[in-house]
Amino acid sequence: MRTFSDPEPLVWSRTRGTRIWDEDGREYLDLYAGFAVAALGYCDPRVTDAIVAQASTMTHSPSAAPTRVRAEMYERLIEIAPAGLSRVLLAITGAMANETAIQLARAATGRRTVISFSGTYLGRSVGSVCYAGKHAYRTRLGVAADAQFLPYPDPYRSPWACGADPGALVLGMLEEMIDDPASGVGAPACIVVEPIQGNGGVVIPPVGFLAGLRRLADKAGAVLLFDEIQCGFGRSGRMWACQHEGVTPDLMTIGKGIGGGVALAAILGTEEVMTNWNPDAITSTFMANALNITAGIATIDAVRKDGLAERSARLGADALARLGERLAGRTHIGDVRGRGLFIGIELVRDEGGEPDPGRAAAAVAELRARGIIVGRGGRYDNVIKLSPALVIEESDLQEGLVAVAEVLS
Ligand SMILES: Cc1ncc(COP(=O)(O)O)c(C=O)c1O
């Protein structure tokens, strides 16, 4: 079965830093980091060396057995976790982390209702796709939705808010849903949200929205779960996107970048929520594998040592300003937004803002022809996504941004 939809896919052969080479030897500058994974770039020698050293000592370590590397990984994660999140459960994929986190929330509250948002993407497994905003993901799998959905307050595209603050309106709706005994919605076990929506199109909610969710979760006795799998780990210019707003969830899922290119994810949580299960309540054969953990430790150390979250903030602010300037006044550019090295450019047909996925697809193809890789996402597939490695050379970033601006102009 094919896992890619592109009829003429780029065949990856070799990667290094922010470069990809295809099977014909052609070189590409990657402004997408393989779906926001390669935070350190590809094949960072610090990660590769750690993997090689670990591979000669121990590769497989079953999750049923404690190991020194696993303890070290827990320590690293607790060191970088928002204050108050002091427990860790490892996972392999982001989807696995999310489905386990929601099970934990249900166990902790004894309830089962989950509140999710339009545009949310938690993964494609049966236990995570049921909370996705895009129902097309579910239809093909024959999976039913398992959440009460509210609109995600998109500052650019919330016509229903009629000019008012969509964040405040969504919070008002949620409060009403929780308070009204006849709302049809049971007491929530969990409110799950991406502090910056990734696949939804790099959508940053209005200031105060996350704090409002914190308040309502506390009021309702629900667990607040932040999915920082795509927006976290330095991507947004802080170690975690929720730190821009100073809001700490009860549970947080992380993945993608933390494994340095190897499959690794985790749930971070409060003592209270994460001590509900007995030891061994959940497991998976490769959950605590020594190789991926070793890669994760080396990656976290490098991100901290090199101050990559701060670097992401600096480079991202500059990139956003340059793009905004170069793309100003173009009627087919609806919005240019971002935080840190996480940028979305929304393409539209006209001043009315009708999404233009065809133009976005053509731009991705034209950039690839010029040797530049970018992503595409958004609820209408009309958003060009930039999420380069946090180590990208400034000259490479400038070269890439000039090409992006030229093509989009
Ligand atoms: C925000 C978010 N959550 C969860 C996932 C799922 O992670 P995985 O593909 O590792 O299962 C993704 C993947 O794109 C994601 O962006």
Architecture per CATH nomenclature, i.e. the level-2 architecture of the largest domain: 3-Layer(aba) Sandwich
Category from helices, strands and their pairing: alpha/beta
Using the coordinates above, name the CATH class of the largest domain: Alpha Beta
Our count of helices gives 13
Largest sheet: 7 strands, mixed
Would you list the SSEs in sequence order as H and E? Answer: EEEHHHEHEHHEHEHEEEHHHEEHEEEH
What name goes with the CATH superfamily of the largest domain?
Type I PLP-dependent aspartate aminotransferase-like (Major domain)
CATH topology of the largest domain, which one? Aspartate Aminotransferase, domain 2
Low-confidence stretches: none
Q: Report the strand count.
A: 15
Spatial ordering of strands, largest sheet: 4-10-9-8-7-5-6
Q: Indicate the percent of residues in helices.
A: 25-40%
Number of domains: 2
Give the overall pLDDT as a whole number.
97
Shape: globular
Radius of gyration: 21 Å
Distance between the termini: 37 Å
In words, what does this structure look like?
- The chain has helices at 33-36, 45-55, 68-80, 94-109, 126-129, 136-139, 166-179, 209-220, 271-274, 290-305, 308-327, 357-369, 394-408, and strands at 12-16, 19-22, 27-30, 87-91, 113-117, 148-150, 188-193, 223-227, 251-254, 265-269, 333-338, 343-347, 372-373, 375-377, 383-386.
- It is α/β, with parallel strands linked by helices and 409 residues long.
- The chain folds into two domains: 12-44 and 307-408, Aspartate Aminotransferase, domain 1 (Alpha-Beta Complex), CATH 3.90.1150.10; 48-305, Aspartate Aminotransferase, domain 2, CATH 3.40.640.
- The protein has a seven-stranded mixed sheet with strand order 4-10-9-8-7-5-6, with helices on both faces. Strands 1-2-3-13 form a four-stranded mixed sheet. The chain has a four-stranded antiparallel sheet with strand order 11-12-15-14, covered by helices on one side.
- A hairpin with a 4-residue loop joins strand 11 and strand 12.
- Helix 2 runs antiparallel to helix 10 (290-305), helix 3 (68-80) runs parallel beside helix 10 and helix 7 (166-179) packs parallel to helix 8 (209-220).
- The longest helix is centred in the C-terminal third of the chain and has 20 residues, at 308-327.
- It is globular and about 55 Å long.
- The site of pyridoxal-5'-phosphate (PLP) has 15 residues, from helix 4.
